[in-house]
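Sat 14:20. Reprocessing the chain from the morning session after the first attempt stalled halfway. Input below, unchanged.
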Amino acid sequence: MIEAPHFSAAGQKHAAAFALPSDLFDGTVNEAVLHQAVTSHLGNQRQGTAKTKRRQEVSGGNQKPWKQKGTGRARQGTTRAPHYRGGGVVFGPIPRSYRIELPRKVRQLARRSALNARAREGMLHVVDPIALDAPKSKVLIGLLAKLGLAGVRTLVLTDGSKPAVHLSGRNVEGITVLPFSDATAYDILHAHALVIEAPALAGSTKESA
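Finished this time. Tokens:
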């Protein structure tokens, strides 16, 4: 059984550690699958609109720059060949899709591996539900400071959608707030520490894709 430190919503550490659910935390970290998940995520963010003109697309160059023979210079047929300034580009980028689709079970395995990696490093913290009536960045920053995460890139995973908590961290550098079910393997790996609400882990039997 894997355990993580358990804190109150005010940042006070409980005497007993939190037993992480075995359906998610089995200690397995599949680095190959994590690599696939990160590569897929980054590729899917690319627009793929980079474009250069090839020699047939560059304007001009319809005439020979000089006659074929008699000048002593090397023969040339156009000034838009790749070795000319202003000429076409050889093997340059053209618009294409970098999208990589991963099977649902692979995405789920990557997510579990990412969670296990952070738990193994001791960078996973469990907190009681964070209750905010209105957005308060100061409260969220204070909580993370009490957890020893001041200045650490942190991902806060809530039990479902909590707009007040989300808005509290939206404008704070290094803090990201997401519902637990929405977090991907990339989100978890990009953060250096995880703070997860206890009810989110208690209801984690349904895995997100």
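The chain has a mean pLDDT of 93.
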